[in-house]
Amino acid sequence: MSDNKFLKRLFQAYYQEKQKEIPAVSSLESREFGFIPWEKQIMIRHIGFESQKFLLNYLIDRGPKHVYSSGSLYNQPEAQNMESKKYQGCDLIVDIDVDHFYTPCKDEHDLWYCNNCEAKGTGMVEKCPKCEKSKITKITWICDKCLDVAKNEIKKLIYDFLIPDFGTDEKDMRIAFSGHRGYHLKVESEELRKLNSDERREIVDYLTGENIAFEVLGLGEKFQMIHGLSKENIGWSQKIMRKIEEILCKPKTEIEDLLLDKNRFNFNPNLVTSFLNSKADFLELITKGERNVWSIEGFGLIMWKNFLKGVVKHIGVELDEPVSIDIHRLIRYPGSLHGKTGFKVQEINLTELEEFTPLNETNEKLDPIVFISKNITQKLEIVEHALPITKIKGIKYGPYVQGEKIEVPHHIAVFLLCKEVAKTI
Amino acid sequence: MSISSDLLKHYPWLPSLQIYYSDIASKDPTEFIEEAFLKYPDGELEQRISKIFKAAFNNLEEIEDYKADDINIYLYLIVKILLYVLNNKPISNRVANTYSKQTYKELIEENDDANLYDICKDLKLKFHYLNPPIKYGINLNKDQREILKTSFKIYFTDYLKLAANLHDEYRKLVHNALSEGYIYVQKKDLIRLLQEYVRRKLIVEEVKDENNIEKFRKNILHIREFKELYGNILNNWELKKEDFEYSFKISFEEGSDISNNFPPCIQDILRRIQEGMNIVHTERLFLVFFLHALNYPIEKIIDIFSNLPDFDRKKTKYQVEFAKKKEYTPHSCSTLKSLNICKANESKDEICLEGYYSKKLDTQKKLSHPLFYIQLKQYRNSMKNKANKTKIEKEDE
Questions:
Q1: Which of A283, A300, A334, B235 could make an SS bond with A347 (beta carbons 3.0 to 4.6 A apart)?
Q2: Count of CB pairs separated by less than 8 Å, A with B
Q3: What is the CA radius of gyration of chain A?
């Protein structure tokens, strides 16, 4: 039996056994469903179900690799083109996936090798740094650290933006671990459902801080003096000023590291020294808030803008923008299995979020690792060039190299097979 | 929710019109128009409608004799019917702009916030009236502190719906005071949003099914007064349309028409202004810098902008003069690309996409500046003319 057939049967068995635990999304009958089967890399879209019972039958019968449902509601979700579906509205969807942004742990566990010049390395790359060709194979992995980063982003989204600024009600939020490298959040409210893509783009800009014109918030140069922002102005001005205060209250060495960090401020050492020399005065000025003339040696309008851009990057949410803007997107169905990991797409409520640790969850009901087994092991052979360490349930497996034959617990075997980096022997 | 009939006479675009005047709403449009002209046989209705179109075609910011009376309701409805049968996007946009500007003026002059409150309620906007007004920020200027207070906050989804077409940096959500789902707005900004609502209500999407509209037009043009009104409007438009088109076609340095040599980015902005659409701040700046670089007279530039929905002659004059004084240069092609103003791909313009052959460097070079586009096009035209002249001369020989 091929590995894909084996995984398909496992997924079918899971859906059969856990069918009562798979939640029904709201207005299920008005949503479009999509599936990727094990047999082919194609998306089967435009499917509708009258009730959850029919969906479950489909899952048990076919055990698909990936299961998705639409954020949109339609009168006829099964219609073959968007026009005929009769669009009714779309929930606001936010996808936070560490695939899309830098985390320091990627330098340890994300591997790449060049198919052109055979160079290899770690970290996030788009093309080979040696031969500059894009023919590279990437092995993207997961660890507690990057999933924590993703969790922090979702917390930031909820506690810094959705609740205080947008007044989003907790009962309208659906949070889910995606089953791989991130989290999804869906806001189900009648008012948000009416928004078109352009209007959603405005919300995305607000959540990320993209396209802020600092001049509109008050930054400007008059008579060779820089006038800054005010923390009394509700909205982004206030967020920025609070963050600046927070940064200025940090120890000097920490500020120095932050300002020199290439992925954040990327300042040159002279400017950092100048900034640190004025730290106390600047903090006093903005704490008092009586004046807004910002004066640090070497900081002209452009430098201040760069500084503010760095601050905004700290505050804004790292989200996958097209997902929130596109009104015809499909997102993973809660309770379904992720075909690249074998982990469950796990719904979590706000009170559970803080303690939730996807790779080492102690609450059985929330545990995304559904094929957990202490006693059953499986023998595999590694087919990928090299694999980083996999740490699941507090136990480390690997690193491994191509051709290595290993014996691992069932859930690790499922994970490596879903990742397509190993084969059964 | 009950709204006063006086308020409806003043602002007949309010949704309650359908309830208060259900007798009109249930009528066939032809029957309604016939009755309207019978009700007001002294010609006042025709005169006041003509004044709206006159103001629109002349880019005036006020409608002469605008009155909040019974006729105003008939007038609004007949204007809507006229725009439908005219089925002409530039006319619709111009009338919508003028009428909505008048609405802005009327609303700004309202002393009583209660009316504004009733209007927002009638529009079913989710909003709060705060009494006393609430502080949401400050303006710091040197050592002066101006406290920003307002009595109005509007739910962000309603705000987004109303502000969606206002391509103005100040109205972007990210630049506004958003808290607990509501945006604090100054009264004048709320009124600006209502102006945009009115503008959009009057804009008639071009009807694709010309057969249906033709049938309706034929039927309704049997009414003598309506036919006269319709004919006069079309005649006036024909005259004004030419005026507007010609206004770009002058090079003030050489006295010849250079508008055909404008790059697609500028052509696109001018087209949208001509249609009375909103354009973004960066496009406004670019157009001003560009026209200044070609030495267009200030008054001519202001006239071009007068077609915009939010046009304010005083403010525009100040900004156009300021830009002239500062001698700003127009943006380069790469900046235009980053600002999403470049239209090279959309227009498939050969010069923009392929550039030109440089004899000096013996290579194909990309265009780097929109002003160079004009020079290049003028050079190519002159070479073409020269070649044609030589050909004619040879033929003559």
A1: A334
A2: 91
A3: 24
